[in-house]
Please model this.
Amino acid sequence: MRASKTLTCLTVAAVWATAGCASLPTNSAPHVIRSFTPAETETQAAGPKKDQEPDLLLRDFYSASARPDSDYEAARAYLTEGASAAWDPSGQKLVVDSIGMTTLPGSSVGQRSYAVHGAVVGTVRQGGAYTPERGTYEATIDMEMVDGQWRISSLPEGVVLERTELRNQYQPYNLYFFDEDDRELVTDRRWVHSRREMLASDLIGLLMEGPSERLRPALTSSLPSSASYTGEQEGAYTFAGFAGVSEDERARFAAQVVWTLASAGVTGPYVLKADGQPLVDGASDLETDDFIAASPLVETVGETTLYALSGGKVVRVEERSTQPVEGTLGSATDVSAVDIAGDGQWAAIFGKPGDATEDVFRLGKFGGAEHEVMRAGTFTRPTFEPGAEAVWAVADGKRILRTVQSAATGSLTTGEVKVELPEGVDGNISVLRLSRTGTRVVMVIGGRLYTGIVRRQASGERSIVNVYEYAQELAGGIISAEWRPDGSLLVGTTSTTPVMRVEQDGSSMTAMSSGNISAPVVAVAASPSTLYVTDANALLQVPASGADNPIWREVPGLESVRALPITSR
Model:
């Protein structure tokens, strides 16, 4: 058997209905322990058809190998006894766009070999985390006659499945883990193959394993190694080994479990027990309302205010009109880029595009003081961390800068953020945007889309690690990108599909309605209720949910104005 693969500052508190319950504290976050094994589901009636031709049987094998039930029982039915014993399907799954196969020369009566190939689009790692990849899969599969029926006698270890089979057999669910400040629940998207009645236990099992490998640099963990999930018993989800876990840590972990189950459609109330007692003292039944302050759902993130930048001026967009914002930012006429936080703090770049002078990066507050951060030839649009505790921008296309203002003295400190880019990536960064929780970053480099994880150093500095390219089919044609409140990405392009939705894990992208959009889409923005784009002619908006093929309309108050949207958060 032969195979090759070429792969290119606000503290969250819990709100309790029962007096005496703990709040979500402000230090560590839970860790999880045991290895996750999906619960066995009822194996679909499958197996080789009688007298099936070898190429058709091989294709059916690849379809069957997408079902992990009972240690891949359905797929093993296509193998000889020896091949079944030797085949190891554990480890990550390779996802290809489609599988092609060609008969190799040298076949004889009762024996045949096939060259199998496919374009790699991603991998699904242990625990269901999807990682986008790009490359080619090639393998040789040997087949032989067994009692007059074709069976696979030799194959590489591991599982290869077509992208359509991933979507048919697996379902994406969100796990939630607290960030390092224990303020925000961070989404960790996983692909799970599970029977509905076992889904809750399977998701809790994944929580007990902890964050996916890619996300771990951004998160912390605190549960002892003795902690374990012991299953569902008499309507309660039970745990053991929590004797040394504080009430604050228990409350945080309970919030993770409750929001993970609720987002997967598992109805509450949720009874959580540890070592025979309620996981959280005094709370026998838990609901999402008990952890409403930690809600990760977009509808509880809060509505945003829309601002717009046009002709160097920044305005606040009201019901059907616009008004200049307060202070220096509102009176300026040379603003080229700006980000605005929910409390009126702003970070802006001043300087006319194309002039010979350096641009100026400033921080300020509506109607208040402002400070110059630095000057450079060019800057990207700034982006705030949660709570506006720090602001990032890219100077001269290469240097990622992070500026923090001292709460005590008001002085500014700016440091460079190191980024570990994939090999061969060396273009200028034209877009850099932090996610709502500040744990992820999206970048546009040379017209390509990349996402990375923000790692905190012991010194308090930041770096960007685990960077992957998304939406590779659009390579070279991407101009703008922004995080949507649900964690997906809104992407603007120069192509005939000018606006795309890209999933948070990069597993898929979807063309959005574009009937009345004229490419290029140079700017995008999103609030919980509305999406905004700036195309070749105007600033347009559409509801974030609703009709399948909605019409993009000009923003009231900005008709006939080509402005850039800014949504505060």
Observations:
- The CA atoms of residues 103 and 114 lie 5 Å apart.
